[in-house]
Amino acid sequence: MSFRAVIEAGLDSAPDCIALSYIDMRARLVLNSASRTPLPQEMLDRVANVAARLFLAPAFGATGNASEMAEQATILGSRHIYLFQRMQTLPDHAFCLLCRRGADAVGLRRHALSLRGRLAHAL
Amino acid sequence: MTLSTEIVTLLAGIERTAAPRARPERDLPGTSAESRLEAMLGTVEGTVLPRRLSFNSEGGVRLELTARSGRLFAPGGESGLAGVARALVAHARREGRLSVSSTPTSDDGEEGEVSFPLAELRAACSHAAAMPEVEAEPDTPSGDGTFYGLIAKACPVRAEFSENGTRLRDTGDASLPDAVGATALLAELAALETEMAALGDAPALVMLGDGREGDLILCGDETGAVLGRLGGAGWSELVRLWDAVLPPEPAVKDE
Fold it and tell me: What is the ipTM of this complex?
């Protein structure tokens, strides 16, 4: 399956999600994305910025706890849930599942871990 | 040893002796809230060089303040001093032993803080002590269904900060970031909040980790911020509480 097909399948198999973005955090760029409806570029750029802050900011690695070097991070917003998953083999890369509030948070985390493996395989 | 070498050695020794050092923790005298408050004020009064004072309760709640020349640093304005006074009064009312330790600091409090003379602090404490709502366990501003109430339930270990970054109180756990770490984390949180606001998703709660006990939680609103460690109830409970405090908005058309 191509990388693009994995992205699209990753979104299709998460009914509560409205977008899936694959991000190069060093470049702060969304490299690939799929969404239920077209999203503005500015929104994708901001999602890339947030991912970079969560996983690359020194502050999160300086508090003496291993969990701050997290591979997963979640933001509960007023309208959405943003689940960020860092890639294992490419630590500068991550993807973001943008989901509706009320989505099954535990299920989303499982989905993200499974999707990470499929994306890594397709790279 | 030559004379010059001896002089250098002596000077180095003097420098070491004169360097400010951390003072070990010591118990504060007094058993009543009034006498313990007086002991805390006395500690501030007796602080000449800038120091970070850490007042620790037996229950593990820590109150950190900066003092210098007998003056206390607090957020500017009457409300800033009143907040610190309330925290001091509440701390004095805690059950069990109360101790203090101090470490030298090079700064004059946090950004946005100003120093208050002891007389003003004492007057603010008298006023706070007369207020009925200052109780013995205000380690969270509220236990209700608000933002901070949520965090208090989900994060047994947490530190709370005012809107200008002053550490108001914390639960005294070694896994909480120190002052430098907290400053950096609050700066990151502010940057994330800006991004989330631009995405139309403020306020927001940030969790680093995969939802296990001990994961770092950050959130803030216009009144301040909290850094905490996720408790045993875990991620599902945090989401449930978030939904209770901030019910999901109806889905918009473009989704």
Answer: 0.92
